[in-house]
Amino acid sequence: MREAVPIHRIVVEARELFREYGYEGASMRDLADRVGLRPQSLYTRFPSKESLVREVLALTLDDTLAGLPDPATDARGAWRTLIGRIAETFEARGRCVGLHLAYGVTAQTPDAQDAVRSFFARLRDAMAEILEAGKAPEPASVAADTLAQLEGATLWITTEGDMGPLRHAVERALYVGDLGAEPR
Amino acid sequence: MREAVPIHRIVVEARELFREYGYEGASMRDLADRVGLRPQSLYTRFPSKESLVREVLALTLDDTLAGLPDPATDARGAWRTLIGRIAETFEARGRCVGLHLAYGVTAQTPDAQDAVRSFFARLRDAMAEILEAGKAPEPASVAADTLAQLEGATLWITTEGDMGPLRHAVERALYVGDLGAEPR
DNA sequence: GTCTATAACAAGATAGAC
DNA sequence: GTCTATCTTGTTATAGAC
């Protein structure tokens, strides 16, 4: 009897595929190959390819937000850690799964579309909460703008391997999160 | 004998499909349906689906840059017109074809990948040229950052229909292009 | 240039044995 | 939980008539 493949492993590999190839470009066959299963065996763990989107984004949100410093006592540290995590992932992987899925899922997969919307809304809200705890003005708007700038910078990583725009986006992000800290 | 379908029409419809569904998600059958042809007839006009990427992006670059004010005599006007065109397209269509293709084409379609890289490099260079004519500092870097910020803002249009981040990105873009104009 | 017909293949998903 | 086998559909692309 063969060792059962951990579900976490499947979701992690699915994330790699979605990030690199997008929703349409990722196939259940490729995923099965990566985890050493037959394609059909995936369907005993997940009802459909579409359902993988929610799993992938739930894992990613958890990776991003778990164990952050408490915004109430260390808003600046929470902000810097969060921005750092996002930027590190973009640098290491070259792109964002969430953005690829945001562009890649359509009304034909409404559950996946909802999962994407929910993912970004939660991430933005977590960012806004930190900014608010740090007494930054317009936290919701600034959170959305900051996330957009980080995401947009992945364009240059993907097309040219240029990390410059991401680094600039990180600098701007750290600056807006510094309000309330000692003056510079 | 039936009227021949203009090639421009096919490329325009291909652009809509690529923008909405991405490279993998767009099918030659869908494209054929849109222009009123059989899928097979497309192959007398284009050697492959991959070749459409270059055509679509060439058309888009032309739409974006054609007839701009001369940067040498009106850098501020050229910049404002260019940013306005990009932003209008993003607002009207909700997303950017170029970004969808940047994420969506892989090493398996190297010609398409090169077309995407070339598209963004040319657009950035055109923006940098305008900034340089307007005596803005670090034109190449600022051009790349500006384009990244506009692109990133489409995340919120796609997921939530929120135009706020795009409008903020436009404001920042117009600000950096105002250097050299009368002080504010 | 467009058509009909078809090739050659890969996709997501299901049934039932072990 | 994983397997073999199979179904159904959709994909890009080609051959040849008109």
Automatic annotation (TrEMBL), chains A, B:
It holds the Pfam family TetR_C_13_2. Residues 27-46 bind DNA. Keywords: DNA-binding, Transcription, Transcription regulation. The keyword Acyltransferase does not apply. InterPro entries: Homeodomain-like_sf, HTH_TetR, Tet_transcr_reg_TetR-rel_C_sf, YxaF_TetR_C. GO terms for molecular function: DNA binding. PANTHER family: HTH-TYPE TRANSCRIPTIONAL REGULATOR YJDC, TRANSCRIPTIONAL REGULATORY PROTEIN. This is TetR/AcrR family transcriptional regulator. It comes from Gluconacetobacter asukensis.
